[in-house]
Amino acid sequence: MKLTIVVLLSFLTLHPAIAQQVIPITNHDEHKATSTWGQPSFGFGTWAPTRAGECSTELHNSYSGVNPEDGYRYHMWHPARDPSGCSFGHDHGHDPSNSALEQRFGSIYFSKANQHGMLSGIQMVHTCTDQATDAIVRCEDNVGQKTLEGVREFTDSKTDVVQPCAARVQFHMGVHSIDAATNNLHGATYQIACDDGVYANFTVLAQIEAPGGFTNKCTGERVEMGPAWPFNSPKVVNPLTRGNSFGTRNIVESSCIEGKASHTISLQFHELWRVVMILNSPVPTIKSSSFTRPKIQITNPNSKAGQWNWYWNASNVTRYLDAETKQLKYSINTCNETTENGDFLVKSGPCVAHRAAQAKLGREIKWDDPESFARGDAFSMRLTGFHLSNGPDPKTKPEVWYTDKEGLNPSLTEFPDSLRWEGQPTEWYVNALGADARMVPFTGSIKVQMSAVTINTRENTDETLSYAAPGSGTSINPNGTH
Description:
By secondary structure, the protein is mostly beta strands. It has helices at residues 6-14, 57-62, 101-105, 112-119, 265-268, 350-361, and strands spanning 3-4, 22-24, 34-36, 39-40, 64-66, 72-75, 127-129, 136-138, 145-156, 162-172, 185-194, 199-207, 213-216, 222-224, 248-251, 270-281, 285-288, 296-300, 303-315, 319-321, 328-330, 378-389, 400-403, 419-422, 427-430, 446-450, 454-460, 465-468. The relative contact order is 0.13.
């Protein structure tokens, strides 16, 4: 889907000095301080109201901020309904500034991973027109940006010691669009800080399942939608998961619909994505052996620093995919479908209340009506667990190593114009996919923060992080989201 930033262009035309202007940021209390406008990130300003009475694009753009690490302006969290009374028509979940991690790690910026992926030359989908260059670039839709925050308990798998951890996540899950059927890259921010000092803060493009298809929510079978789009989507192999891919996108397919197969209604309006993320460390891995020359040598210039596993659930989803046509269809429409006998195809679940609401209103409730229950505004995340490999290891990690000025070509011996590094880093830089780790920043890189420890596995023993917008699962939606 191509989106052109017409409104933003008009806004800049009306305000030619906007680049030098200081404007208030009104997304929440911590960000109401003034900030220079900065350079718009890819896709900034593409959201526009779709019905009378909704908030303006300019008001939506004001819920934004400039990331001090790169100087770009990004959209940020905002309430579904602005204090002025107008509605934005979408809901981003928990206000991330309420987390204790706001002061420690700074603000969360939507589509930061996408921005840095584009800057480093990663070509992907979600296209829009960049207002600065008129180039077609990748951008993530604003509606699909969701945030969750809270405190959860994790248990060390070896010691059984329980550690409370503050957690905050942001994830792009566009459950109203069709692109997830072929595109496997979705921006994610993961932040955690435990009482014992263990912490991690990173933003990446999570690679979820192989591109070009998805997993049928009901059967567990792979559904091929065609060639991967974009054609050069990264295909990372993970031998621990089915299909040799990182995670799965369990999306509703037509066989999930009640009445067409022996499945319950709970499957029809629900998506589950399993996300597996791996971050690399710039510290090289060494091997010592009497059979090698020299006896100590580098075997891996980018070793694993940590792995995170989590599940993201979305309820009351807008879409499902038709198996025959491989086209997007709206799940709410199945509530009105009937069999040859005249019975309703879907007899249970939210469809019962949906048909009653239609009868009361005397009209059909369509997928994008504020009265629709299938808005995708109820979601949760299971922080399954994580393990860190960032602690010093005298057997495999050198105490001192050298790189060139770009942080590449690690060596155990000094060489002309080399940079000297020692100890275990707690901050470094990776590309948007969490790889190509270096001690120095580079084009498109994102800073990683992580405690210098090694943890075998720390599993979540507490309930999921969850959010449900007011009116979720009913025909009444006080915030006007659709």
